[in-house]
Each structure stands twice: as structure tokens, then as C-alpha cells.
Amino acid sequence: MDSKTKNRPLTPPPDGGRPTLKTIAFMTGLGITTVSRALKDAPDIGAETKERVRLVAKQIGYQPNRAGVRLRTGKTNVISLVLTLEEEIMGITSPMVVGITEVLAGTPYHLVVTPYSATKDALAPIRYILDTGAADGVIISRTEPHDPRVALLTERGLPFVTHGRTEMGVVHPYHDFDNERFAYEAVRELVERGRKRLVLLEPPPHLTFYSHMRAGFERALRDFQADAVSFHHINIDHTLVEIRDAFETLMRSDDPPDGIVSGSGSGAIALIAGLEAAKKTLGKDADMVSKVPSDFLRWLRPEVVTMYEDIRVAGRELAKAVIGHIDGQPSETLQSLSQPEFQSAVPVSIKR
């Protein structure tokens, strides 16, 4: 490096644009090719040079130009997370995004969230990603037993992972929560508290985890000699107002339930509101076990027995699985199932 280069002020050229390899080269006094190879951790570039280049790149907020990367490699370095608006209402979007980005932070990949409404064509965002080549991999949720998105992604050969399982004979990466065990253990807990007439706030019937939750609930009813109270006209996709009003009506009936299993933390709040609107007391007239994605329900209503579904961990597992699928790992090695975690710290209520 000559004296002119050594004395060059470390300020980027006044082009007014985003930082580029040329910017880093100017600020370090290195050639553009050397900067590019240093950022790619090329073995022929010294460790001191790599560290200097990375430090400057970090300081000026340099990001590789995705269009250029795509031209050179055929990759976008993008993972697309396709979520419905209903998932935002249920409060799972933020922790899932956090979990995914924790894993992607150590990779070249960036996360793009693609929202859509479940009332519209669920294939539309998938077709867009496929037709435009917008992502190297896709994460989808709210899976159905015979999910057309899984069929299309498999047919087109785009790596993907599902938050939830399918029943279509296709071996694909997934991460899921054991909703069957959740419902089974919830019934066990309620029966141990002396409850015998149980109601379930369940998922909508078209989703796979509906059958899982129903199976656990019904098996536990048989094993522990409890009875079901019908609430099939309402599910966790209904609005909180609809859930509250329907449950108030049920609690005002001649033979209301005395035990409640809620498949949704936000739905549990609506159930409690309906119960109390019917002049009933939680913990006295009925006990509740709810699945939750956070501690908020336990803080607000400690009398509710909660089972924790760690959505942040789900995000991590989904990110690892989709990267594994992109890298060509066998799908059967990219499948995981998390278990419910009891959070109850409230003693069994005393019945009169």
C-alpha cells in the first residue's frame, strides 16, 4: 500500500447510494476483488485483512446485492415465511419470527414474511414465490391433511417445511406441537380436579391439528370416564366476541360444563369473559386448562392451568429444517415434534 493510499480519508465516496464492494474497497485501500474474496472467507486472504474488511462492512451497513448474488449463484438467499392474518391474531407471529431469525443470523439467508388472508386463495402466495423465484425455501403453517400447497411445492421441487403435519403420504420436513398429548393431559388434569362435563375449544375442522386434538380429547374422555359437552359450532378461528357470546350462552344453559379445554390462549380469554358474563366463577363453577404461546394468561389469571407451546423454539426448528432441505438433507431427518409443558402453580381447587 503506497503513501497516497495510507493517507486516504476513511470516508465513502460521495455517490449517495447504498454501500457497495467499491465503498469498502475505497475505505480499506484494497482492491474490489480482494474485498469480495475476503467477505467470502477465501483461504488465500489473510485473517487480518478479512477482519478489517468485515469490520468496515459492518460499520457502514453493507449488504450483498441480492440481484447480483442471484445472477452469480442462481440463489436469492431468501427464506419466505407464509403466514395468515389469523396467526397474528393468535399471537404467534413475533416469537416465530424471532426464532427463525436467530438461526438465519449465522447464514447467508434473510427472512421475508408473506402474509395472506385465509379467506382467500391459500395457493396464491405459493404460486407467486414459485413463478417469480422469490425465495430459496418456504415455511408454511396451518397445514391441512391433504394440503395443496405441499403438493405444489413438492411437484415444483422448491425446498419447504411445514409448521404442522399432513396426511397425504408425502414425506416432507415439518415441525409440530403434540396437540393430541396436550388434549389428553388437559382432560386428565380436569378430571383429577373433580370435573366430569368437559368442553373443548378446538381448531377448525379443515386443519390437521383438529384431528390430533380431538383424538387426544376423546381418548382421555374414555380413559377417565368423563363426558363431552358439545361446542362444535365454535372454534379458535372465530372472533373473540363470537367465542365469548357462544360460551356465555352455553354456561347459562341447564347443564353447563364444569371443565374447559382451550386450544388457544387468546380464545381462553374470551371463554373466561363468557363464563363470567354468565355469572359463573372460574375455579369454582368450572376449571380450565389452556394451551398458551406465552406467560400472559398465567399472569392475568393464575387459576388457569396452562400448557406452554414454545413458538420461538418452533421458529428455530423450522429454520433449521428448511435450510437442511435446501442443502439436500433427507426429509425424514428434518421432522420434529415438541411436547406441551405444564405451567400450573395453582393447587387443586376444593369442591363443595
Descriptive overview:
This protein is of the alpha/beta class and 352 residues long. The chain has 3 domains: 3-63, lambda repressor-like DNA-binding domains (434 Repressor (Amino-terminal Domain)), CATH 1.10.260; 72-177 and 311-338, Response regulator (Rossmann fold), CATH 3.40.50; 179-310, Rossmann fold (3-Layer(aba) Sandwich). Helix content is 43%, strand content 15%. The chain has helices at residues 3-6, 21-28, 32-39, 47-60, 66-73, 85-89, 93-104, 124-132, 148-156, 179-192, 208-223, 240-251, 265-277, 296-300, 311-326, and strands spanning 78-84, 110-116, 137-141, 160-163, 174-177, 197-201, 227-228, 259-262, 287-292, 305-308, 335-338, 341-342. The chain has a 6-stranded parallel sheet, sandwiched between helices. Helix 9 (148-156) links the parallel strand 3 and strand 4. Helix 7 (93-104) packs across helix 15. The protein starts with a helix and ends in a 10-residue tail after the last strand. Residues 1-10 and 345-352 have low confidence and may be disordered. This is LacI family DNA-binding transcriptional regulator.
Q: Which helices and strands, and how do they pair?
A:
Elements (H helix, E strand, L loop, with lengths): L2 H4 L14 H8 L3 H8 L7 H14 L5 H8 L4 E7 H5 L3 H12 L5 E7 L7 H9 L4 E5 L6 H9 L3 E4 L10 E4 L1 H14 L4 E5 L6 H16 L3 E2 L11 H12 L7 E4 L2 H13 L9 E6 L3 H5 L4 E4 L2 H16 L8 E4 L2 E2 L10
